[in-house]
Amino acid sequence: MSGPRVAIVTGAASGIGRATAERLVADGWHVVGIDLRSDQPAGVERVVGDACAPDVIRQAIDAAGPLLHGLVCSAGAPVSETWDDRAAWDEIMRVDLDAPFEALRLAMPRLVVAGGSAVLVGSIVGSVEGSRRSPAYAAAKAGLGGLVRSMALVGAAGGVRVNLVEPGAIDTPFDPPRYPPDARPDVPLGRMGIAEEVAGTIAFLLGPDAAYVTGASLRVDGGRTVFGGPDRL
What pLDDT score was predicted for residue 181? Predict the structure, then answer.
């Protein structure tokens, strides 16, 4: 009898990563979480460390075992408050773009064995919107689109799918909102999303219902990126 599906989730202690780890555990997955914090959800096998560090990623891959069915790269650095802060640029690129590449590079052989799937967590900032505060954040998240499309081609020969989710305004502690969560004039649905809604999209992309989906970018933004504003007909 085969065991449960196995996934690695980076950034598993908070926000979208935490919600994803909880969703996968509830769906019967064995989840190995990577985070700098140890307070990851119940049922998660915890690896405490930097999701950018190759030795930490290898530790998680070893914990997952020979079959890795899913990889979710959700760890992220917050936006910088000063657009020309070079140290912030380097750190955001390291966490938001370098780390997903490193995880995909190291995990690909195990994903191939299992015919697995990877999902990276991007943002509508970068792919659609710019950022006055943090060009680094926008550039890193935009870069994930090219990474996903390229790794979908790399993985296809081995049956590995690679996709991207691009959340909009999500009610997490990651970036304090400009408006009340339930009163968003910039979102057609009128509210911020919640992390569990993004996690549900990730679970879909990892699962068999998305078996013919790869290299795709799926926005979870309440319609914000198709909205021209309250006065637009």
Answer: 84
Going by C-alpha positions, the residue among 102, 106, 167, 160 that lies closest to residue 141 is 167
- Of 10, 23, 110, 137, the active-site residue reads 137
State the residue for tokens 């140290």.
87
Would you call 137 a catalytic residue per the annotation?
A: yes
Q: What is the pLDDT of residue 79?
A: 84
Instruction: Using the CB atoms, write b or e for 176-209: b if 16+ within 10 Å.
Output: eeeeeeeebeebbeebbbebebbbebbbbbbbee
Q: Tell me the CB-side half-sphere exposure of residue 89, using CA atoms within 13 A.
A: 9
User: Residue 43 pairs with which residues in a beta bridge?
Assistant: none
Task: Decide if 51 contacts 120 (C-beta within 8 A).
Answer: no
Residue type for position 148: V
d(CA 43, CA 33) in angstroms, rounded, equals 10
The SS3 assignment for 141 reads helix
User: What would you measure as the largest C-alpha separation in the chain, in angstroms?
Assistant: 59
Render pLDDT for 37-55 as a digit per residue (tens, 0 to 9): 999 999 999 999 999 999 9
The upper half-sphere exposure of residue 65, i.e. CA atoms within 13 Å in the direction of its Cβ, equals: 11
What are the pLDDT digits (tens) for 161-208?
Answer: 999 999 999 998 776 677 888 889 989 999 999 999 999 999 999 999
Could you give the CA distance from residue 14 to residue 17 in angstroms, rounded to a whole number? 6
C-beta neighbour count of 151 within 10 angstroms: 24
CA distance 77 to 215: 24
pLDDT of residue 231: 53
